[in-house]
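Q: Please design a sequence for this.
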């Protein structure tokens, strides 16, 4: 399949934050997936948030890792180089504290053989950047336009669900030159320890992911698919091939698997296999084809 001019072997990728080549490749070949979306990377190294920064919730989890990463230069020399040597299709998730930092990290990525750039304007776990850029349509448009001007790489904008109307940011990103959208990122949440009366996470709040947010994610993909003509990569609580199919029926061209991979490291390839089995059913394939005929530009 083709997404924004890039060939994917299948419509399943990892979501940013759950894949590290050295560990994940013990469980599956990263080249077997449609794409591998790598952990968020910034222009300079980020230490992330203090611990504790992970908490389980019913049907999901909260994380406040804070985009800890070694910086783009280390990423290019290490993770990206290894993945390309293994034949993987790589989507680099780019983050920044400021618009200039976003532009700088994307400028450096543009000079590499990364296949696509995912602009992370939706992480709720950093105090500057991330969701601060992704909850205002005008800011999304301005930042997307700046990044678009310095790279010819296929550009995906990752949208935040922590808004009143996600389609406003979606339309703004498309207008500014985004080639595709990915949604949704995590939803802002909190847990309080009944023994101490204090928040469980050192960051106080964190991003809720997992099956708990899947119905919201499906709804937002459905709404966005009817507001833009560019491809959508859907995510949010995908645990099975059947979950992935629901996102495709809602209008997504492909999906990303996140939290499931923290429970079962091989989940992305399992979901891909299950989805392929479902799509081999002529009746399901016919229903999906009908849904896709309504968005012809997104499935070129």
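A: Design:
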């Amino acid at each position: 399949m083709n997404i924004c001019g890039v060939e994917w072997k299948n419509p399943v990728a990892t979501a940013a934050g759950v894949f590290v080549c050295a560990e994940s490749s013990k469980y599956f070949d990263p080249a077997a997936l449609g794409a591998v979306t790598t952990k968020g990377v910034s222009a300079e190294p980020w230490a992330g948030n203090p611990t504790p920064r992970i908490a389980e919730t019913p049907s999901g989890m909260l994380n406040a890792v804070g985009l800890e990463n070694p910086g783009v230069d280390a990423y290019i020399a290490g993770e990206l180089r290894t993945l390309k040597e293994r034949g993987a299709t790589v989507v680099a998730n780019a983050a920044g504290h400021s618009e200039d930092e976003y532009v700088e990290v994307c400028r450096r990525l543009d000079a590499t053989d990364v296949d696509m750039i995912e602009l992370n304007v939706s992480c709720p776990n950093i105090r500057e950047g991330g969701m601060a850029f992704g909850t205002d349509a005008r800011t999304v448009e301005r930042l997307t336009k700046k990044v678009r001007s310095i790279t010819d790489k296929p550009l995906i904008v990752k949208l935040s669900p922590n808004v009143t109307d996600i389609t406003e940011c979606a339309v703004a990103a498309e207008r500014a030159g985004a080639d595709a959208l990915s949604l949704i990122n995590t939803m802002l949440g909190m847990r309080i320890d009944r023994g101490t009366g204090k928040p469980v996470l050192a960051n106080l709040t964190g991003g809720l992911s997992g099956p708990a947010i899947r119905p919201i994610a499906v709804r937002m993909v459905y709404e966005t698919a009817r507001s833009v003509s560019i491809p959508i990569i859907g995510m949010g609580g995908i645990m099975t091939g059947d979950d992935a199919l629901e996102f495709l029926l809602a209008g997504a061209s492909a999906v990303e698997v996140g939290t499931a991979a923290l429970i079962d490291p091989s989940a992305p390839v399992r979901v891909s296999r299950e989805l392929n089995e479902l799509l081999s059913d002529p009746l399901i394939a016919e229903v999906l084809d009908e849904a896709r005929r309504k968005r012809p530009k997104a499935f070129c």
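Q: Thanks. Anything notable?
A: The longest helix spans residues 72-85. The longest strand covers residues 90-94.
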